[in-house]
Specification:
The protein is α+β, with helices and mostly antiparallel strands and 412 residues long.
Length: 412
């Protein structure tokens, strides 16, 4: 085995230019895939983090049918206090849940006493909301990064459009569940930077203020946003929580609760899936590059070394050893291209991080692209390249091992 490996390396060194060109082609493919994989993966992870950590949360729990009518913010589909307690007990006993935040969502008319428009508001308990969506305070571009009773965090687009500043009084008029109308004055405590996606232009008030504005006897919760300890266990926690709450039925015998991941609530999930599809096809391109390059080189090697192969067969070299020799040559080419490609790709990603490239996402400007490469990706790409290299060498190696010695020695 060691001798075969030495012979394979020696044969590759005999044709240095061809070996160098083939290894370079494999290296370029590996570098291209690594850079694309890292940049697209980092961009995807950052965007998911921006969406889940600044407004949605990792999971949301609603009454059955609420999400289908979410554009209308129906107050009659809010969770009643006993239902909220059941959900809270389930979340408190779930090991993967870090924290959660109840919200009352409603729409109303918003006025600065000279102009009036509509607004979507979230009644929240600030301490719990800031823990569930920890990037929310960073979206406050003016004013204090806190929310007290009688105060409002106002979306920036609304504030700019109506000329409202921090400290200005505003009025919200909302229709209650029984159809009556109530109004309440707030002080603008902060201006919120927008985020692309649902809820990116919502304002925030204290949960007690929402209860008072909507004249609720007890808080009726529209949704409960959940933050997990480990985002990688999203599917596992979702399935367990859905199973735990599936036993609760409404009067029609249908499930009382709905549990949704961020994927079902944000249109960005489709963009994330497109990135995954593009990554898959880029990997296919790498496989095609390696396959064609190695197969071409090995076929040429067989045709150029026909008499050499005939000599080896004539002195008693077994067909299996000739086949192994060519497979080892393909194996060595794969290792060379994978190692150099991984080192070059990692170096290029390091330079990209040093250059601190920025990009815009929705209303957010100047986000710094921080690329990262998982060891698992390096290992997967390297193993794939080596296996494909060996597979591409198989047909030429088989052809070489089946040559007749006399015919091969007569070859000109």
């Amino acid at each position: 085995m060691v001798n075969l490996f030495k012979m394979a390396v020696r044969n590759l060194l005999r044709y240095r230019r061809r070996t160098l060109l083939t290894a370079s082609l494999i290296t370029i493919g590996v570098v291209f895939v690594l850079v694309f994989l890292s940049v697209s993966g980092s961009f995807k992870a950052m965007m998911i983090g921006q969406i889940t950590d600044s407004m949605l949360g990792h999971l949301q729990i609603h009454r059955h049918g609420y999400v289908a009518s979410i554009d209308n913010l129906p107050l009659n589909l809010n969770l009643k206090p006993p239902e909220v307690r059941k959900v809270s007990e389930a979340l408190d006993g779930m090991p993967g849940v870090e924290t959660y935040s109840p919200r009352i969502k409603f729409g109303g008319m918003f006025s600065n006493f000279t102009e009036t428009t509509n607004i979507r508001l979230n009644g929240v308990i600030p301490e719990r909301e800031f823990k569930t969506v920890p990037l929310l305070p960073s979206r406050i571009i003016e004013g204090k990064k806190a929310l007290g009773k009688g105060e409002m965090l106002l979306p920036a687009l609304l504030a700019r459009g109506m000329g409202i500043k921090v400290g200005d009084p505003v009025v919200v008029v909302a229709t209650n569940q029984d159809g009556s109308v109530n109004g309440r004055q707030f002080i603008v405590a902060g201006i919120l930077e927008g985020v692309t996606g649902p809820g990116g232009r919502d304002g925030y008030i204290h949960l007690d203020d929402a209860v008072e504005t909507l004249r609720m006897r007890e808080p009726e919760i529209s949704e409960i946003a959940v933050r997990l300890k480990d985002f990688g266990r999203l599917s596992d926690v979702h399935n367990r929580l859905s199973g735990l709450l599936a036993g609760e039925k409404n009067q029609q015998g249908k499930p009382l609760f709905e549990v949704h991941t961020w994927e079902a609530l944000s249109p960005f999930f489709n963009v994330a899936r497109m990135i995954d599809v593009m990554t898959f096809f880029i990997k296919l391109m790498l496989i095609a590059i390696v396959l064609i390059s190695i197969m071409n080189v090995m076929i040429m090697a067989v045709y150029e070394r026909v008499r050499e192969i005939g000599t080896m067969a004539a002195i008693g070299t077994l067909p299996g050893r000739i086949l192994s020799l060519f497979l080892f040559e393909g194996f060595c080419l794969g290792i060379l291209g994978a190692v150099v490609g991984c080192i070059t790709g990692s170096l290029l990603l390091w330079i990209l991080n040093l250059s601190r490239l920025t990009f815009d996402f929705g209303q957010q400007k100047g986000l710094v692209l921080a690329v990262s490469l998982r060891p698992g990706d390096l290992l997967t790409i390297s193993v794939t390249v080596i296996l494909v290299s060996v597979a591409a060498s198989l047909q030429p190696a088989w052809k070489a091992s089946r040559m007749e010695p006399i015919e091969a020695l007569r070859h000109v």
